[in-house]
Design a protein that fits this description.
This protein is of the alpha+beta class. The chain has one domain: Nuclear Transport Factor 2, Chain: A. It has helices at about 1-55, 60, 80-100, 170-175; strands spanning about 65-75, 100-115, 120-130, 135-150, 155-160, 175. It has a six-stranded mixed sheet. The chain is globular and about 90 Å long.
C-alpha cells in the first residue's frame, strides 16, 4: 500500500512535468510560427510595398492589394475601391516623376496579429520626400491594414491611414521593419 502511494505520487509528478514540457513546447512552436508568418508578410507585402512606393511603381504597388480592396484615407473622409485607388496612384506617380520628385517610406509596427490566412496590423509610417530643387519634407502617419492570404500570397484588403497628430515620437515608439 505504501509502495502504491509512492508510485502514484511519482506518476502525478511525472505527468505534471510532462504537461509543463508540452505547454512550453507549444508556446515556442506558436511563437516560431508567428515569426514565420510575419517574415512571409514582410517579404510578400511590406518590403515590396517600400520598393514600389519609393520607385513610383503604381502597377507593382497595386499588385500588393486585393481586387476587393477598401482604401480609407481617414483625413480625406473618403473610401476608395481598388480601381479608384489605382487611378489616383497612377496619376500621382506620373506627376511626381514629371516633377522629378523623390520619396522614401519607412514603417514601424504597433500591433501585428495574425493566423495562417488573415492579419491585422497597425503602426506608423514616415515619408521623406524631396522636390526637384532638393527641398526635403517629412510626413508621419498611422496606418491600419487587414491582409488576407490568397493561395500562397498575402494581399492588402483594407488600408486605412491618418496623419492627424502623428509625430516622429509616435513613429519611433513602434517596432521598425
Amino acid at each position: 500500500m505504501f509502495l502504491n502511494l509512492i508510485l502514484s505520487l511519482f506518476v502525478i509528478k511525472l505527468m505534471k512535468t510532462l504537461l509543463c514540457a508540452i505547454l512550453t513546447c507549444s508556446f515556442f512552436i506558436t511563437l516560431a510560427q508567428s515569426d514565420n508568418i510575419e517574415t512571409e508578410i514582410n517579404n510578400q507585402v511590406w518590403l515590396p510595398f517600400i520598393k514600389t512606393y519609393n520607385n513610383f511603381d503604381a502597377i507593382g504597388f497595386m499588385n500588393l492589394h486585393s481586387r476587393d480592396l477598401v482604401r480609407v484615407p481617414v483625413d480625406a473622409k473618403k473610401i476608395y475601391t481598388f480601381e479608384e485607388y489605382s487611378i489616383n496612384n497612377q496619376q500621382s506617380n506620373e506627376m511626381s516623376l514629371r516633377n522629378k520628385r523623390k520619396q522614401a517610406i519607412e514603417f514601424s509596427f504597433e500591433d501585428r496579429i495574425h493566423n495562417e490566412t488573415s492579419a491585422f496590423e497597425t503602426g506608423y509610417y514616415k515619408v521623406t520626400s524631396s522636390d526637384n530643387q532638393g527641398k526635403t519634407r517629412t510626413f508621419y502617419g498611422k496606418f491600419t491594414v487587414v491582409l488576407r492570404k490568397f493561395g500562397d500570397r498575402w494581399k492588402i484588403v483594407l488600408d486605412s491611414d491618418t496623419g492627424k497628430n502623428i509625430t516622429e515620437s509616435n513613429f519611433l515608439s513602434g517596432k521598425k521593419l
